[in-house]
Write a structure and sequence with these properties.
- This protein is α/β, with parallel strands linked by helices.
- Strand 1 (40-44) and strand 2 (50-53) form a beta hairpin.
- The termini are far apart.
Length: 576
């Protein structure tokens, strides 16, 4: 653990580059351009490796910001950015803020109609867009001042924008309390809301999170998940530029390509979602099992020993014992893996640490910038989503006899509200100003948070017991035959008010193909196997948690961009 206060270097720039408690995002970037002008900043490997240093990135940002000002973009203007992860995306984001405006990141996986709705709802004046949707969005949004592109060779390509000799209006730079971004989110259900986050929200959360985890200018972050999402935006993008670290942009969620980019980029900070870490671990463990039962037994014993030593004295012998295993998985340069965006099975958490990788998880929401908790690598708890970060005043509202209640929080990372939605904003804050997360959990005596589920997903059984479906779903994470699972309540009879529990399961298509070449026969075998898995898991559950109905699906459930299954708004009626 590094004993230096996170962001201590900011003291050298306070009163010069910025005033107040926290710099704005452009001021923070400028500080690290001054500190590390020639360090790598943004790198991409596809199709060929290209790297911009902090100085080069800054030159692009200032040029684009001047162009935006020349076409009338300034304070309170909204500019949308939508596209695949890339240095161009990052340049656009920072240039909008440098011009004193507000950035509106939009999920590139949305349909054109959905993106148009968000552009209109946010009062966006200009747009940066990738190749596939350029023409459709340009045609659908004639009200925009300008539509610019993020792909080389495109019309008004970001790196060719130039204000020339145009007279620029006076720059009105943003202050730390000013709005930096509007992030549209619906979680996994409901209508999208525009979360208003200020420069202070982002920058304070960035450095306060470092109170639970030290990062260095020499780190290399991997931006794999969509960068419009608050998790990647803060935990990768802003965290990296806050210390002058490098960002490697990944564009595709393809394991083979990911492994290659991790190796070539010499990535040290690998942030992803549970489903991806599960796939990596499954591949590693299959490789070990393939060496035979004797080797597998020996390796399993060594992994258990490694984990016990780390938990007891802090030293991780797995770094040496399993170096070859990590090299084969292209994880040899990884310093820390961080899981977010959903619950992670404790066994997955434990196995990565046993293999010599500092593996932690955190918790937060878009409305909280997003990080609220993070497991310190030097004192982690496998069943917890982490220790509450400094200045996050996190409490449990109306806890039950087990200490479980709704998680509420107050602090500098909490949003300013929902854009043009006063009633919705008012509804998510308590009378004394705490943000209601909608999540259920409890705190231990060391201020570590444990999640039990979403309040709106809670199932109430006939015995009056509360069941949290996320806890049950976690039990299936290490079954590689299952690609998706959704646990929810259903009413066996329409007249009853209590619920029973069902599981909707979509099998792994790769595994299904191995069962039989005949699709109908493969599906029948899969149904039988899934029922056996549920029976096996039911043995580990409390009586009132047991699954009473299994539905094996032929089509996948709809997913969010962070690979979470979208939940239905209401429970199933019991009809098939």
């Amino acid at each position: 653990m590094d004993n230096e206060r996170p962001g201590a270097f900011l003291d050298d720039y306070r009163g010069k580059t910025f005033k107040g408690e926290w710099p704005t995002i452009p001021e923070l970037f400028s500080i690290n351009v001054d500190r590390f002008p020639d360090r790598p900043c943004f790198t991409v490997f596809a199709p060929d490796k290209k790297t911009l240093t902090y100085r080069q990135a800054n030159d692009h940002i200032r040029k684009v910001a001047d162009y935006l000002r020349s076409i009338g973009i300034g304070k309170d203007s909204k500019v949308a950015v939508t596209g695949k992860n890339s240095p161009e995306w990052a340049i656009a984001y920072l240039a909008v803020l440098q011009a004193g405006a507000i950035v509106v990141p939009i999920d590139y996986q949305l349909t054109v109609a959905e993106a148009v709705n968000l552009i209109r709802a946010s009062d966006t004046k200009a747009l940066f867009v990738d190749e596939e949707k350029y023409q459709d969005l340009k045609t659908s949004c004639p009200q925009l001042l300008k539509v610019m592109t993020l792909y080389e060779g495109g019309p008004d390509y970001i790196y060719t924008l130039d204000a020339g000799t145009a007279a620029l209006p006076p720059l009105i730079p943003a202050q730390e309390a000013d709005l930096a971004a509007i992030l549209f989110t619906s979680g996994t259900t409901g209508n999208p809301k525009g979360v208003m986050l200020t420069h202070k929200n982002f920058v304070s959360d960035c450095f306060l999170a470092q109170g639970n985890m030290t990062i260095y200018p020499t780190d290399v972050f991997y931006a794999l998940l969509p960068i419009h999402h608050s998790y990647t935006m803060l935990a990768v993008f802003i965290e990296a530029i806050s210390v002058g670290a490098e960002i490697v942009f990944g564009k595709r969620l393809v394991v083979k390509q990911i492994m290659q980019e991790l190796k070539e980029g010499k990535v040290t900070m690998f942030l992803a979602v549970p489903v991806l870490f599960n796939k990596f671990l499954d591949g590693i463990m299959k490789g070990i099992k393939a060496k035979g039962p004797v080797v597998y037994g020996l390796m399993s014993g060594l992994m258990g020993f490694s984990g016990s030593v780390k938990k007891t004295i802090g030293f991780n012998p797995g770094r040496t014992l399993f170096k070859t295993v990590r090299e084969q998985a292209n994880l040899s340069t990884i310093r820390i893996c961080i899981s977010g965006g959903g619950p992670l099975a404790p066994e997955v958490f434990r196995k990565y640490n046993e293999l010599g990788i500092d593996f932690v998880q955190g918790y937060g929401l878009t409305e909280t910038s997003p990080i609220l908790t993070l497991n310190p690598t030097y004192h982690y708890k496998e069943t917890s989503v982490g220790k509450v970060i400094p200045q996050a005043d996190l409490k449990i509202l109306d806890p039950n006899e087990d200490g479980i209640g709704e998680i509420i929080v107050k602090g500098p990372m909490v949003m300013a509200g929902y854009y043009k939605m006063e009633e919705e904003t008012k509804a998510v804050f308590t009378e004394d100003g705490y943000f209601r997360t909608g999540d259920l959990g409890y705190l231990d005596d060391e201020n570590y948070l444990y999640l039990t589920g979403r309040a709106k997903n809670m199932i109430v059984t006939s015995g009056g017991k509360n069941v949290y479906p996320e806890e049950i779903e976690d039990k299936f994470q290490l079954y590689s035959e299952i690609e998706q699972i959704l646990v929810r309540g259903y009413y066996k009879e329409s007249s009853t008010v209590s619920e029973e529990i069902e599981a909707l399961i979509y099998p792994s298509q790769e595994w299904l193909g191995e069962l039989s070449k005949n699709k109908d026969e493969a599906f029948t075998l899969a149904e039988q196997h899934m029922h056996k898995i549920v029976e096996e898991v039911n043995q580990k559950l409390l009586p009132y948690q047991k699954i009473t109905r299994v539905i094996v699906l032929k089509e996948p459930l709809e997913m969010t961009t962070t690979q979470k299954v979208k939940r239905f708004v209401t429970p199933a009626t019991g009809e098939k």
